[in-house]
Amino acid sequence: MARIIGGIGTTHVPSIGQAIAEGKENDPYWSPFFRGFDYVHGWLAREKPDVAVVFSNDHGLNFFLDKLPTFAIGAANEYRNEDEGWGIPVSKPAAGDADLSWHLINQLVGDGFDMTICQEMLIDHAVTIPMALMWPGERVWPVKIVPISINTVQHPLPSLARCLDLGRSVGRALDAYDKDIKVVVIGTGGLSHQLDGERAGFINKEFDLLCMDELGRNPGVLTRYSITQFIERAGAQGVEFLNWMAMRGALTGAVSEAHRNYHIPISNTAAATMVLENVLVTAKAHGCTSGKDVDCCGVKSKIEASKKPEQIPALGVLR
Q1: Full-prediction pTM beyond 0.85?
Q2: Which residues are annotated as catalytic?
């Protein structure tokens, strides 16, 4: 069956693409951010995933305010990028895995997620920049992708709980997939930032670090925030963290944080990178006789429930 090796969360600011194109990775402004990927490169080289499931948000290349689905998934064997108007080079295409996409679609719809299914889909900087960061200089990216788009623009937005459940549905589907492949799950965007209005330039380091802390050990804690409360704390565009929540939900085993990097600011954005490792919890490993491997005897739920939401103090993170 498919094996989920872990998840990666990363920023997708367009100016990163310009820095890559201009070879500025070692410039003083950029190097603290790019150095955060040294660990990621080694981890990916060691784990060698075959497929990346990428949760991101579209920036107008496929959908706009007049037609913007809550959740959309690609079901194609190739995904192209086009000029988005940011002044960054058009990226090479990414190979897709349509068979896996359809397997995920059937699970998602069966779980009550009414997905918009895209047999043709463009990928924008929310996908191409993270791919370039994780596999720099590659003529052809060494993984196939399944892109899943979450609405973070047109209100009402899906809740953090709904996106966590979306990821969990994807994780169950991956666990049930009968092909022997290794899968990395990626969530892109954020962290705190606001690009317009009276709070333009807003960054909230304290809240970002809280989100990173809880994402690995107990993501359910974060679902206590409504979208309005989250935007108050993370900024209007900081709600791209929904993609990170979906990524975390897809990790179905025992999850541990392997690496993080946090740097501010990159183009008025809190830039962050995080690697979460996913280890299958087996019945044998903890002496269970149920015969189940994943979530055996509530092992996973005990890990995620190590802190209950009501035990987390209401931090003063509105700023």
Answers
A1: yes
A2: 125, 193
